Amino acid sequence: MTPHIITPDKRNMAVHLALAGLLLLVCIAALSIGTVRISPQDTLRALTGSADPMSNFVVRELRLARVVAGLLSGAALALAGCLMQTLARNRLATPGIIGIDNAATAFAVASVVGVGVSVAPPLMALAGAATATAIAFGLAGVQGTRGYRFIVSGIGIGAIAGAVTQVMLSRVAIDAANAAYPWTVGSLNARAEQSVLLLGAGLAIAYLILLNIRRPLNTLQLPDATAISLGTRIKTTRFLGLALSVLLTGLAVAVCGPVGLIALLAPELARSLCRPGRIPLTASALLGAIFMLTADLLGRTLFAPLEVPVGIITAILGSPYLLWILLRPSPRSLT
């Protein structure tokens, strides 16, 4: 008898199904666990409005919007990180590390604390993400998103944006500073419905576009001459990928703030699970949502009734992995 061989496509499908199942379990846990604990069966019934009034209220009114916000923002940040790493061919080139998160946060905070700007936070966050990317791209010169000059420029821009945010918060009334605080540390608490809806629409559009340009994106991992010989329009593909990364980052930051390391951890783990040589878009999005919801659940429950912002949890749990990447380069590295 010939041994049964698992093909790469079957492996990817198995990984995606497993991650989707895990995400479903995490969503149910996030809806069930809290100050008021609800059984998984009652949680599922509450989603259809057929549970007792208390369970219906807790699940549908208090927790569901937060879970949706975490799911969408985690998936968006992971997709943005996967795209940025692919375009720069560097596993450290994520929106958080190259300053896009901080710039989007600075612009969003400016709209909240009222420093002469009245534009909605989602639009301001998009403007900040686009501005940081444009400056970093310009400072990188002919190399564009390739090489360490783009990353170093982004780190500098992020540091400046972070300082501007702190200056704005220090010069406004305490109430305005408190309202803007979640954008500085990353939080899913009381997110605006409009921001979540915009993120959902942006994520759906970006994902559909990415599915259509998956093949040219895959060829960007090859030398430029090889990619061109395969019919890839390199400049167009890179510009579109960069634009989608900025869109996803800006909309996600408008919802959850600068949640660090989701954009780094999710694509890294997705590459280790999926078929080599292909960009793991779907797996990255699923893992990003899983990481975000898990971190938020830990932040809500570990020190209850005190709530730890999700951005702090991801920083604590993700920093050791970042150090491991820096100290022990992987053979699957993009660099």
The gist of it:
This protein is mainly α.
Would you write up a description of this structure?
With 335 residues, the chain is mostly helical. It has one domain (8-327): ABC transporter involved in vitamin B12 uptake, BtuC (Orthogonal Bundle), CATH 1.10.3470. It is built from 14 helices and no strands. It has helices at 8-32, 40-47, 53-88, 100-113, 121-140, 148-170, 174-185, 193-212, 214-219, 224-229, 234-256, 262-273, 281-301, 310-327. Helix 3 packs antiparallel against helix 11 (234-256), helix 8 (193-212) runs antiparallel to helix 11 and helix 13 packs across helix 14. The longest helix is centred in the first third of the chain and has 36 residues, at 53-88. It starts with 7 loop residues before the first helix and ends in an 8-residue tail after the last helix. Residues 1-5 have low confidence and may be disordered.
